[in-house]
Amino acid sequence: MVVAASSAQAREVVDLVGRRLRVPDVPQRVVTLAPSLTEMVFALGSGHRVVGVSQYSNYPAEVQALTKVGSYVHPDVEKIVALKPDLVLAIKDGNPREVVEKLEQVGIPVYAVNPKTLRQVMETLLALGNVLHAQERAEALVADMARRLQSVDDAIKNVTYRPGVFFQIGVSPIVSVGTETFAHELIVRAGGRNVAEGPDPYPRFTLEQVMTLRPDTIIVSSMERAQIFDQVREQWLRWSGIPAAAEHRVYLVPSDLFDRPGPRLVDGLELLVRMLHPELSNGRR
Fold first, then answer.
1. Which of 42, 163, 184, 274 could serve as 47's disulfide partner, Cβ 3.0–4.6 Å?
2. What gap in Å lies between CA 58 and CA 75, rounded to an integer?
3. Distance in angstroms (rounded) separating the CA atoms of residues 25 and 66
4. Model-level pTM?
């Protein structure tokens, strides 16, 4: 049984989904239940406090040595409790509510977040900075992100040509991204048009449908192995009727920079600017 911190050692906070809870004044043993949360905590300079992470946490490199506590959607409660954390960080859309409830029943506070946009990612970093007593680091990190975002905005504001982008996240079947995704936000902010935009966040397409969309650029982002990346790129390049293929604008990108709500989303944005508008230099950091 984990004993919650005493009132002298704890303070009351409201997490980013509106839940009121008591957390240690300075958390010492933190478990993160999503790769994005792992990245955020390390970016805030608090990685030394992390004792357990979700299965697919892979950045920065030192997380590989940490105990894995199950996947994003199937956290292992027993493993988490065995680590004796004094704080667990969770994401509302993804981590099961029943896991949060079980942890709280044994006295482990769970602070939940739910970022959906770049702005909300920055707000989340500031909130976690407060919870982890890393406010100064959080403010500096967010200020740097804001500076880089403004640099991109300034570079793009006079762009008149916005290439159509097909952003592929699934290979078989072909899956793209709709309007309510980070990738869509990055495409638009980088001066492109998402040809798959729409209410379905992850629409499926046939090859014929992609050909009809006639994207100017195809970006393949997947968790598949690198050799699969290369095969998919070669397959697209065979279809010269698609402008992206005819002009060899088929790119492979690491998925973590486009679907993981953390500070590296800005890296993904700057990469997109270089791909979509190579004539610009201000897309670089």
1. 42
2. 16
3. 24
4. 0.92
219 neighbors 275 (Cβ within 8 angstroms): yes
Residue 20 · residue 78 · CB < 8 Å: no
How far is C-alpha 58 from the geometric centre of its chain's CA atoms?
Answer: 12
Residue 175 and residue 202 in contact, taking contact as beta carbons nearer than 8 Å: yes
Residue 146, φ and ψ in degrees, nearest 5? -60, -40
Average pLDDT along the chain, 285 residues, taken 10 residues at a time: 52 96 96 98 98 95 96 95 98 93 96 97 98 97 98 94 95 93 97 97 96 97 68 91 95 93 97 94 48
Cα(273)–Cα(165) distance, rounded to whole angstroms? 12
C-alpha 12/C-alpha 111 separation (Å) is: 11
**In this structure, what token pair is assigned to residue 208?**
């014929």
Q: Is 102 exposed, middle or buried (0-12, 13-18, 19+ CB in 10 A)?
A: middle
- In single-letter form, the type of residue at position 247 comes to E
Residue 62 — left, alpha, or beta (φ > 0 → left; ψ -120 to 50 → alpha)?
A: alpha
204-205 and 174-175 strand pairing: antiparallel
